[in-house]
Every structure is written in C-alpha cells, then in structure tokens.
UniProtKB/TrEMBL annotation:
Enoyl reductase (ER) domain span: 13-351
Protein's name according to its UniProt entry: Alcohol dehydrogenase
The keyword Membrane is annotated on this UniProt entry: no
Record has Ribosomal protein as a keyword: no
Organism: Geothrix rubra
C-alpha cells in the first residue's frame, strides 16, 4: 500500500485549508482498534473544525472527519469486539466519544457525558487512510451497503433520529417542516419522518432539489424563495394549522419563519446554525403559541444499533438509506470541503480512500 497520509488542521483557516501529510499510523491501545479506511463522509463539523468556533477552542493540530467506514486492521491487546464485528472485517464508525464511566454514560446518554466530543473534532478523525477509535464505536455494515454508503450514514441519521424521536417525540400523523431538505441531515430527516408515519414538508433552494425530495418521500416541497412568505405557504399546506414540528439546523436566517410556521403546541428542534448563530425573536410567539424549543447534538450511540436493525430487517429495500451527492478521492479532501461549503449538492459528500 502507498504511504499512509492524513489531512491536518494545524491552524484555523478557510474551508479547504487542511494540509496533507504522510504519517505512521500508531498501534491501538487496549480497548481501541485501528481501521484502514475505505471511505469517509464530510459533515458541517469538518468545516467548523477547520474554520474554528469562537468560544470553543479545539486542540490543534487535529485531523478532521467524523464519519468513516473501512476494514478493521489492528485490535488493541485484550480488546473485545461488538456483535457482528470481527478482525479483518468491514465496519463503520459511531462518531461520538465519551468516557463510558460517568452516570450519563452508564444510563446510555453518552452524548450528555461531560467529556463528550465527536471524532475529527476533539480527536483525530477520518480524513486519513487510517484512524484509531474505541472498539465500542464499531458497527457492522448493514446488508450489501458499499463503504461509501456506510460512511455517509452514522452522523446524520443518528442526529435526525435523536431530534425527531427522542427530542420532538414525533407521533404518527404529525407534520414536520424540514429545512435544507437537500442537506445530509435534511435528506435523512425526510426519510425518517416518512418511516415514522409523519408527513414531511421539505424546504429546498431549487426545483432540481425539490424533485429529489419528492423521491425521498416528502409529502410537500417548498422552493424557498422569500422567507417572509414561507409561513403562509406552510399554513396553506396544513389547513391553516402550521406544522407540529420544525426540523431546524439552519439558524439565524430561518428562525423567525420557523416560529411562525409552527402550529399551537409545536416543537422546534435544532441541531445547527449554518446561516448564523445569533438571533432575536418575539417571546410572545413562544408563550402565546405554547411552543417548545429543543436543542439537540448527536444522539445515543445505542440508537445507531436501532437504526441498523431497521435497515437489516429489509436490507434490499430499507425504509431509509444515505443519499450520496458526490464522491471525491481522499486526496481531494480540501476540494470536497469547499464543495460542501458551497451547499449546491444534494445529500452527503463522500471521499473514497
Ligand atoms: Zn461519560
């Protein structure tokens, strides 16, 4: 095999600025394993890791990349492996890292662990030929999925599942407004809403993306246009009620429309702020309509096993699958970051190793 390499954020800079370097992959310590990666997928966290987050200093240098799939090529001494995973086998990675010892971890809420962080953000990630992860973060690859599909799955589906099922507590028959239906997390949410018996109203930037949202099972699609007009369009589609749940990850630009689009008693669940992190709003909208605002970040690692079991029930025709926008070579990871930042694609941006 060619010389192992990885991309490094040595100092924060614009999207695409991580630097390629060769390295000697370390042996895994007890409890950990080493993967020879075959594919990795990008997330907005790759961009935040690269650009830097005001008020959240990251340990640098770091290799970005939260999602990955590959072959298990070394196992730390005395390390047990999860069910369905064997040395030399194909695996995908659960991206959340936690201590495994604190009360939150012991009750399964690993994303509430005081030390919780995401691979590629707080530890060296998957923009590399090799990565070290705890054995507890391995999952078998379902059905006949490719490494690219496996890499594109964990972070966005875990995030969307946590938001819809455990934060917003979506019930069958309810309506969900999904911002950014063409994004990785948005395309996951549209499919999960349908699988859970709800109706998704997807918001996208153009007609081409709208067609793809229909294909994923959206009940209605709104091409964004003027944001001030959007709550009216949502009311027209919901018999003047508004939606039960707003699936937010876009932030400042869309927040006012999210509040206005909610039915009485609606829930706004948010996992991101890609258009800006600060906003103001009229508190009267919150209490008069009896709304709930719910923050969400990643999800229980356990629930990746739930999602996996739903796929494995019908691997040839699963209720949801990752949507891949474009596959780059790992050597072109900086260009893949710039492509993600432009936001023109539909679904996940993946690099093949
Ligand atoms: Zn913990």
């Amino acid at each position: 095999m060619a010389q192992p390499f990885r991309f490094r954020v040595n100092q924060h800079g614009p999207a695409g600025s991580p630097v390629r370097e060769t390295f000697e992959p370390a042996a895994p310590k007890p409890g950990w394993v080493r993967l020879e990666l075959r594919a990795m997928a990008l997330n907005h966290l790759d961009l935040w890791t690269t650009v830097g987050l005001p008020g959240y200093p990251l340990p640098l240098p770091v290799t970005p990349g939260c999602d990955g799939a590959g072959v298990l090529d070394a196992v730390g001494e005395g390390t047990a492996l999860p069910p369905g995973v064997e040395a030399g086998g194909s695996v995908m990675i659960a991206p959340g890292l936690s201590c495994g010892l604190c009360p939150a971890c012991l009750r399964g809420d690993d994303m509430l662990c005081p030390t919780y962080g995401v691979l590629g953000h707080v530890a060296d990630g998957t923009a590399a030929t090799h990565v070290l992860v705890p054995a507890a973060n391995l999952l078998p690859i379902p059905g006949n999925w490719s490494f690219e599909q496996a890499a594109a799955f964990p972070l966005v589906f875990l995030t969307a599942w946590e938001m819809l099922v455990h934060k917003a507590r979506l019930c069958p028959g309810e309506t969900v407004l999904v911002w950014g239906g063409g994004s990785g997390v948005g395309s996951a949410a549209i499919q999960l809403v349908k699988a859970l018996g709800g109706s998704a109203i997807a918001v996208v930037g153009n007609d081409e993306k709208a067609m793809k949202c229909w294909d994923l099972g959206a009940e209605h699609v709104i091409v964004r246009g003027d944001l001030k007009a959007l709550p009216g369009k949502v009311r027209d589609l919901t018999g003047k009620r508004g939606v039960d749940v707003v699936f937010e990850h876009t932030g400042a630009l869309t927040w006012g429309a999210s509040l206005a689009a909610c039915a009485r008693g609606g829930r706004i669940v948010t996992c991101g702020a890609t258009t800006g992190r600060e906003t103001t709003f009229d508190l009267r909208a919150l209490f008069a309509k009896q709304l709930q605002v719910l923050g969400s970040y990643m999800g229980r690692r356990e629930h990746l096993w739930t999602l996996l079991s739903l796929v494995q029930k019908n691997p040839t025709n699963p209720p949801f699958r990752p949507v891949i926008d474009r596959v780059f070579d790992l050597g072109d990871y900086p260009e893949a970051q710039r492509h993600l930042e432009r936001g023109q694609g539909f679904g996940k941006v993946v690099c093949r190793v």
